[in-house]
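pinned: reference chain
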Amino acid sequence: MVNGVYRAMGRVSDAPLRRGNELVLLRNGPATYEAWLSAIGGAKRWVHVENYIFRSDGIGRCFADALCEKAREGVAVRVLYDWFGSADVPGSFWRRMREAGVEARAVNPPAVREPLNFLKRDHRKLVAVDGEYASAGGVCIGDEWLKVSPETNLPYRDTAVSVTGPAVADLEEAFAGVWDETGEPLPDEERPDADEVPVAGDKAVRVIIQEPGKARIARVLQFLMAGVEDRMWIADAYFLSTPTLTQSLMAAARDGVDVRILLPATNDLPWIGLLSRTGYRQLLEAGVRVFEYGGLMMHAKTSVADGLWGRVGSTNLNVSGLLTNWEIDLLAEDRAFGAEMEAMFEEDLADAREILLSKPRSFTPYRERPLQARPERRISRVERRAQRGTRGRGSGARAVATVSRVGGVLTASGSPMNTYERAIGAALATGTLGFSALAARHPRAVAWPLAAVGGLAGSLGLLQVAQREWSERAANRKSGTDAGSE
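pinned: its structure tokens
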């Protein structure tokens, strides 16, 4: 049976089990940056950095200086940054790095040939050095990750993990996959083989390489939820769970599993936090316990099942994270590491407020209205003001997930809306009415922009079809020529 479980996990994750690794849990930005900069400083052959957000602020310049120094020493330094996540970084920042010898590439910038490709974002946070060290998690490169709440003295929470051992090769493979899509492929000497990486410890690890459309983490979580016996604890930043995953969480809780979800109380993307709360009531009614972290932000993407399966990565549990982005997650199968993750989770719960079901605040008789999800204590005004300085940038794919979630909330039948759902419904309805009024009063003002957008989309679509047809005909002619010359 044990072999069957390992075989099944290998199939759903599409990730081999690597034994002989050492793992170091990195809690929050300062510890993560210290580990990353130390590894970069010791590089002898190459440095690979892949991050959704690489800012040009204080910590961003610190990393840029370290990478430039290594490039000047003759070390191969390669950087992947997401075009959208790092869109506010000035071009001079990247020019300075390139002039020092750093090869920096933007992932998935807008392209006429693929107008809808912008939905796919490189959301990974990865550092790999010399085929000997690698790290992954939720930490971007920006000053937000160094902040502490003036009200509670709690940090901007995030989690990463350092890896030494054979699993480093899989993290390097993930980097190489995206690098190869952005230009000239990565040299063979910078693609280590797992069999050639020395054993460094006793941890068994799978590196789950998420690519657009693959849904590997979604399958892994589904598998874990189907087999978990005692407890499943999850921390997530932008929780807009898919219906299938939500039902799995609820089914496990109804079956007696201790299911806990830890989310931010003050989200750096406020609308995401608002939408996330629309799903609280059904989770609570099924027995899932929901908590909200009291610091500036809970940005970690972690989970631990039965104290054995510990996940640390970049994947948020929403449509964009599970389906459309490039992501990277490490899944350890180790009791000691699982216990360390559970201890970290319990410390975070001590700094969180639980969301509970309570009677509605209304004169309407209780029996006529369902229980509502409410926090056990409010967020202070000081905390809200402090949080405003940490608001980040969301991806286009996340925006699509947001709209999808709104639609699901507003069209759900037989489920009364609570305060958050009513706020979203009112905003959406007001916007729709405003747009309709504008169309009625000034039809040309609405028709011309829509016509322009439709004409552009249609033209690009026809151009794309024509290009593909031309490519296929050229390939067929070449194939016929080659066959005739044999």
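why pinned: The chain is about 45% helix and 20% strand. The longest helix spans residues 443-485.
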